[in-house]
Amino acid sequence: MTDYFRSLNTPRLLTVALTLTAVFGTAWVLSSQPDQVSHAAEPAAQKDAGKKAADPNLRKMTPVQVFMRAKLDDNTKILEGLMTNQFDQIVDAADHLLLMSKATEWHVIQGPIYKQHSTEFRRAVERLKIDAEKKKLDAATLAYMHMTMTCVSCHKFVRGTQLAGNVELPTHSLVSLPQTQPLVPDNPISR
Description:
The structure is a single chain. By secondary structure, the protein is mainly α. It has one domain. Helices cover about 65% and strands about 0% of the residues. It is built from eight helices and no strands. It is globular, with a radius of gyration of 17 Å.
């Protein structure tokens, strides 16, 4: 049995696992309500405009879905940057995610729990950006995994909230953060 585990290609499995996590984490977008596309997602929206004419599935996308697709594209660029040591690509995609996180389309629900999810996501992206700027691959990879987990957790919360009629309900999946925690906590791998 141990020979089997030794024969596995760990980086490839990690890539597949993280990509699938990101894809399934954004799957809820397919049922989102129409909304305006922000300036943060315009490059992706313009790129997808030509594709929409040819692809009937893309023609059915709402502006919020286009916005979330741009977020997923940035996630993919980060993963690609991690796999190829392209730190500038990671920083650029992280910058775009931070810009998008301030757009109106980002705030699909009002309330303190959703706000905490968004804040935690921004912290993870900022940590990723700092680690990528320092060219610390292991720390950036850990920050990427944390970013992906916060994204999936938030999407899970949003789906549950939408099922409850957009009423923010308490959730057990949210980790309470101390109020004194800095915006970008120190990552032990970054040292």
